Amino acid sequence: MDKKIERKSRKLEMLLWSIALPGFGQLLNRKFVKGVLLVVLEFAVNVFGNLNQAIVLSFHGEIQEAIQQTNYLWFMFYPCLYLFAIWDAYKDTGGGQKPFAYLPFVFAAYIGTVGVAFSPVLKIFGYLIGPVWLPIISIPIGLIIGALIRWILIKCYTSEDAR
């Protein structure tokens, strides 16, 4: 039982470090080239997309200013980079072995990117959500859509096997 808990703990550790900063999970998994590349890419997208400035402004409720400060041509890359780093670190630790386990991560990246694209104009209940909060809200939606598609595919394939 201790080995099973240890493996689960390690997978969770990689997920959490990758959420903290893309590339950290890879570095902890001793995938140094991939880890450094992801950290450098995260840094580049963050700096050129003005992501930190957008985060600070968004946390202060200055959504319109956050929108004006955001370089969307760079920021569009962030959800895919972020979720790929999380998935990759998890997978390198032995996670994601079940069929179609990648789908929630992939759809979270897709829908998160759509959230970035619509963040300057989309209002929810009359409120402009902005470049930080709309992608954050979009990611769980993408996870749910990906999990649902995964479930459907598993049902389809298992019913084919039963025939």
UniProtKB/TrEMBL annotation:
Residue ranges of the TM segments = 36-60, 72-90, 102-126, 132-153
Q: Which domain of life is it from?
A: Bacteria
Keyword terms, alphabetized: Membrane, Transmembrane, Transmembrane helix
For this entry, the protein name equals Uncharacterized protein
Tell me the organism. Answer: Virgibacillus alimentarius
